[in-house]
């Protein structure tokens, strides 16, 4: 059983109380389009095998839908998953929340995850029992909320089957999760420190059913899997790491295949 001290209980109440305060995006046939359509949802379908497809909801980082996000979606489709990129920003008049992510925190944005899952389940070409999500940075912070049992219950949502989080803002004192989680983060990340994820696992029962998996890449920075150049962006160091990228991509596929192909 997870034992929570009073201060931790208060933190959990703040998390779950603020979650879902945001009106979720309404995703439907009119505002979900093809890759690059710049609609609220961009759906990439695999060419093979035949439907119904397992699906992965892709949540962008603090800078909105980028080339990297669409590359992730294309990769997922190449593995046989329907990939739905959700633009949480433009429909709300937002462009970039980097360094002020709490202006639109993960606990509010998580409503988009459940709305996207509902949309996917409404489609005949999607397997409704095998839907997961992959979040990047701010999106990774968001998808962790989608695993919290009390948040799922408050939303009256169906739990997702898999969650992948690339360099999230981890909860040092975690509430109980109800979905399996795989986390990837750089040991030299100066934006979302790996130490927070280490603390989260240290405070999560080792025997818990949905205890997250954590892979730390020594020396890797935030956005290690992007194809951009080495740079300092808004005061934070970003540098591609091909070795960490290759390993995390392989582990992502292994994790998703284990959770979404049954």
Task: Report, as a whole number of angstroms, the end-to-end distance.
Answer: 29 Å
Radius of gyration: 17 Å
Structural class: alpha/beta
Average pLDDT across residues? 91
Count of individual helical segments: 7
Helix content: 25-40%
What's the multimeric state?
single chain
What order do the strands of the largest sheet run in, or round the barrel if closed?
1-2-4-3-5-6-7-8
Shape: globular
- Summarize the main sheet: 8 strands, mixed
Q: Unreliable runs, pLDDT <50, ≥5 residues?
A: 1-19
What can be said about this structure in brief?
By secondary structure, this protein is an alpha/beta fold. 32% of the residues lie in helices and 19% in strands. The two termini are 29 Å apart.
Write up what this structure looks like.
There is one protein chain. The chain is of the alpha/beta class and 262 residues long. It is built from seven helices and ten strands. The strands form two sheets. An eight-stranded mixed sheet has the order 1-2-4-3-5-6-7-8, sandwiched between helices. A hairpin with a 2-residue loop joins strand 9 and strand 10. Helix 3 crosses helix 4 (138-145). The longest helix has 19 residues, at 242-260. Mean pLDDT is 91; it is low at 1-19.
């Amino acid at each position: 059983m997870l034992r929570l001290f009073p201060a931790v209980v208060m933190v959990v109440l703040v998390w779950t109380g603020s979650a879902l305060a945001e009106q979720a995006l309404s995703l439907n046939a009119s505002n979900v389009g093809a890759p690059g359509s710049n609609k609220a949802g961009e759906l990439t379908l695999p060419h093979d095998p035949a439907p119904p497809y397992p699906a992965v909801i892709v949540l962008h980082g603090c800078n909105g839908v980028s080339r990297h996000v669409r590359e992730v979606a294309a990769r997922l489709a190449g593995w046989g998953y329907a990939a739905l990129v959700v633009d949480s920003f433009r429909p709300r008049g937002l462009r970039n929340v980097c360094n002020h992510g709490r202006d639109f925190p993960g606990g509010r944005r998580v409503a988009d995850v459940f709305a996207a899952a509902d949309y996917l389940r409404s489609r005949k070409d999607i397997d409704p029992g095998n839907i997961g999500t992959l979040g990047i940075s701010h999106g990774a912070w968001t998808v962790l909320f989608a695993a919290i049992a009390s948040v799922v219950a408050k939303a009256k949502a169906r739990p997702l089957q898999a969650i992948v989080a690339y360099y999230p803002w981890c909860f040092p004192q975690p509430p109980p999760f109800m979905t399996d989680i795989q986390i990837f983060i750089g040991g030299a990340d100066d934006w979302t420190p790996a130490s927070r994820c280490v603390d989260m696992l240290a405070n999560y029962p080792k025997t818990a059913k949905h205890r997250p998996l954590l892979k730390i890449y020594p020396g890797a920075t935030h956005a290690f899997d992007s194809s951009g150049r080495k740079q300092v962006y808004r005061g934070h160091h970003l540098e591609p790491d091909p070795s960490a990228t290759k390993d995390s991509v392989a582990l992502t596929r292994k994790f998703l295949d284990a959770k979404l192909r049954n």
